[in-house]
Design a protein that fits this description.
Layout (H helix, E strand, L loop, with lengths): L4 E3 L3 E2 L5 E6 L10 E6 L6 E6 L5 E4 L7 E6 L4 E6 L8 E6 L16 E5 L2
Parallel strand pairs: 2-10
Antiparallel strand pairs: 1-3, 3-8, 4-5, 4-9, 5-6, 7-8, 9-10
Amino acid sequence: QVKLVESGGDLVQPGGSLRLSCASSRLNLAFYAIGWFRQAPGKEREGVLCISVNDDIVYNADFVKGRFTISRDNANNAVYLQMNRLTPDDTAVYYCATDCPPQPYWGAAWGRGTQVTVAA
C-alpha cells in the first residue's frame, strides 16, 4: 500500500520554480528521515535531498547546486522540496521515501511520484 503522497508537479518554464510536497495520512513523517528522489525517462533513479529527523540535511546531490531546498512542516505532516532555477535536465518523476539516498532500505515507504516537466 502506498503510504506517501507526492504533489506539486507541473509544467514549468526554464528558470522557474516549483514546490513539491510529500505527505502521509498513515505515517507521522516527523519520525522518519525523508528523502526525495527522481527518475527521468530512460535513466536510473537518483537521489536529490534528504532531511533527518533532526532537520539535518544528510544527502545533497551534486546537481542541486544550491537550487533546491528540503524542509519539514510537522504541523501539516509534510516535507517540501523547493526547486528554483529549474532546467530541462530537472524533468523527471519525483518521489519521496522514508529513507535517504543513495540506497534506501528495502522496507522504506514510497509514494507514486509527481511529474515535473521543465520546457519552454
